[in-house]
Every structure is written in structure tokens, then in C-alpha cells.
Specification:
The chain has 358 residues and is of the alpha/beta class. It is built from 17 helices and eleven strands. It has two domains: 211 residues, Rossmann fold, CATH 3.40.50; 132 residues.
């Protein structure tokens, strides 16, 4: 087993990609490893070469088709959605299936500057030889342009607006000027950009109208129903647990169902039957947060509870996911416990443990 904590998608799912490539007879855009049809099959699942390809994303196939079709043009793709809707996950798998490399990535933050987007300089070389191509330090974006591959920009709206607009020339002209060398880098066929963004968190910088026009925006929604979300969480938790060498408890689906039922009710502001209106916390209680809760529960079960997944191990993580604001969210949870969970016999253990923890 590899000692690497987490491998990129193109290595983790190398068998799926190889199977699809061997049986892919559809036309491929220049620079693509797989055809658009095969990319969609890789992401949403299907059959190829007599083998079942497990889905990497459970959701509306049309959304993925639209995203992949966008990348087959010269238009960049912006995946939008609240935190936890698998934007980064989908972005990584698209890059892996299209370019065979998902590692050309720029993590956008409030501290990201233009040099991290465009290029930097090796100052020892710069002082010794002056501005030259040898002294230039290429960013993932520049390397993607030269190699004709996908570059990923995570949390695009975290960057300042002035830094965001550095991308306008790249996306519209498909070239990156290097004034210091009186030259430019021109993008090779196959180059494109997948960006992710959300407008839910604090500290978000709105995209300028000029930059937004250069993207085709695809919104990734939260799962429509409980059954769909249970499938997503169960699959992702199992994959993560396997990579961490954590044994999988027998009652995974049962506990995933109970945790998600709590999350979905608090998220929607009403009980599942629609009879009781409740307040929602400030946290998004997304699918990603449910996955994190369950993985922590697996760890607790393996090391402290004889491999048994229980409310005792999960409730502290549920509390941490819900209560982000110690005043507002705590009051919301207390009200939910007393008006909803207290009346449900099948949730008595969660009610007791959460009440003790608050």
C-alpha cells in the first residue's frame, strides 16, 4: 500500500481511466486524453470495456455534460455552489480525465498576488543574468498554457478583485504577456481553466463583470433527496476510511442516515414532514461536512469503541459542524433538540449526548 496520504485522482482511479481510454472510440478534442463522452462516463459512472465504472459524482448528469462541453470550447468553466457541493472534487476529476493531470492547481486566498497567477522570478538567476527565460519561475497556469492542459483555480473569489482580473487577458486572448522579456506565452490547444467559487462564506470578492463574462457558470446543487445524499456520503466515507486504514463499521448506513436527517432538517429550516418550522444555523451543513463527521466517527469507533459506530462518537463532531457561532448556533441547536429530537425515540442517544455536550 502506498505511504502517500492522498494521491491525485489520475493515480487513485488509474484503472478506470485506462479502461475508458482503451475502449474510447469517440473523437477527442486536441490535447484531451479522453473524449467528452468518456469524461462524463468517468465522472457519473457507466460501463466501459465490459467493466463497471463507479461514479465519482452523484447528481444530475446534464450538469456534468454541460461542464464538459464547455471545456471542449475555448471558454473557461466556473463551478459555483455553496461550500460542500463537491466543486473541488468535480474539478479534480475533470482535470484528471481531460488532461491526465489534476495537479496544476492554484489555491486562491486573500494573500494571493499576481506573481502566483502569472509567473515569478528566481532572484539568484535574475541578479546573475538579468531578465531571462531561465530566471522565470512558471506558475501552474503558465505550465498549463505551455503544455496544453487544464489549470484549476480553487476558491477564485477569495482573491482580491485586482488579482482576479489578471486572468482576463489569459482567458480572452489565450496568451500571457511577459513584458520583462518583450515576449508572451501562447496557450497550446487543450489548455483551459476550471475555477471554483462560492458566495456563501465571508471574505468573498465579487467577480468583475469583465471576468465573469469569460466563464461559463455551472451551479452544483446540494443533493435533491436524502437517499441520494446517503449514497454520496457512504461512498466517500468508505473511500476515505480505506485510504486511512480504518475498518468500516457494520452500521454505517444507519448512522449516515441519522446524521444526514439532522443536517437536512436544520439546513432546510423545517422537519422532514414539513410540520415544524425550525431555525437554521449559520453553518451550511453540507454533504462535505457530513462526510467529515462520519470519517471522524470511523476513527473514534476504531480506536475507542471496539469498532462500533455510535452517537457517543459522532455527536461531538455533529456539534462541531452545527455550532460555528457559539451564541447564535448554540441557541438554534438547543431549540431543535427540545422541539424535535427529544420527541423521537430513535434519536434518544443523539438527544442525550448532544444535550450533555452543549
Amino acid at each position: 500500500m502506498s505511504e502517500v496520504l492522498r494521491q491525485p485522482a489520475e493515480l487513485t482511479y488509474a484503472d478506470d481511466l485506462a479502461t475508458l481510454k482503451a475502449s474510447d472510440h469517440h473523437p477527442k478534442p486536441v490535447g484531451w486524453v479522453l473524449s467528452p463522452q468518456a469524461v462524463v462516463t468517468y465522472i457519473v459512472g457507466g460501463t466501459a470495456g465490459g467493466r463497471q465504472i463507479e461514479p465519482k459524482y452523484v447528481g444530475n448528469r446534464k450538469i456534468i455534460e454541460t461542464a464538459v462541453a464547455t471545456l471542449a470550447t475555448d471558454r473557461a468553466l466556473l463551478l459555483m455552489g455553496i461550500p460542500g457541493t463537491a466543486k473541488s472534487w468535480v474539478s479534480e476529476h475533470m482535470a484528471a480525465a481531460i488532461s491526465g493531470d489534476s495537479t496544476k492547481i492554484i489555491q486562491c486566498t486573500a494573500g494571493t498576488d499576481e506573481n502566483q497567477i502569472r509567473y515569478g522570478w528566481n532572484y539568484a538567476q535574475l541578479l546573475a543574468k538579468g531578465p531571462s527565460r531561465e530566471a522565470l519561475v512558471p506558475t501552474p497556469l503558465l505550465r498549463a498554457m505551455e503544455g496544453g492542459s487544464i489549470c484549476r483555480l480553487e476558491e477564485l473569489t477569495r482573491m482580491g478583485s485586482d488579482v482576479q482580473d489578471t486572468l482576463i487577458t489569459v482567458l480572452s486572448e489565450k496568451m500571457l504577456p511577459i513584458p520583462e522579456l518583450n515576449s508572451a506565452v501562447y496557450a497550446q490547444r487543450g489548455f483551459n481553466v476550471i475555477a471554483t467559487a462560492n458566495d456563501r462564506d465571508k471574505g468573498v470578492n465579487e467577480l468583475s463583470a469583465a471576468l465573469k463574462r469569460r466563464f461559463n457558470v455551472v451551479v452544483l446543487p446540494l443533493p435533491d433527496d436524502l437517499e441520494e445524499e446517503i449514497k454520496i456520503v457512504t461512498r466517500r466515507v468508505s473511500e476515505t476510511a480505506q485510504s486511512l486504514n480504518l475498518p468500516e463499521p457494520k452500521n454505517v448506513v444507519e448512522e449516515v442516515t441519522r446524521v444526514l436527517a439532522i443536517f437536512r432538517e436544520l439546513r432546510s429550516g423545517e422537519t422532514a414532514d414539513g410540520k415544524v418550522t425550525i431555525k437554521s444555523p449559520s453553518s451550511s451543513l453540507s454533504t462535505a461536512e457530513a462526510i467529515a463527521v462520519m470519517v471522524s466517527g470511523f476513527s473514534h469507533a476504531a480506536y475507542f469503541n471496539n469498532g462500533i459506530l455510535s452517537a457517543d462518537g459522532l455527536a461531538p463532531n455533529v456539534l462541531g459542524a452545527i455550532v460555528k457561532d457559539p451564541v447564535q448556533d448554540k441557541a438554534v441547536l438547543e431549540e431543535y433538540l427540545e422541539t424535535v429530537l427529544k420527541k423521537r425515540r430513535e434519536y434518544a442517544d443523539y438527544y442525550t449526548t448532544l444535550t450533555e455536550l452543549i
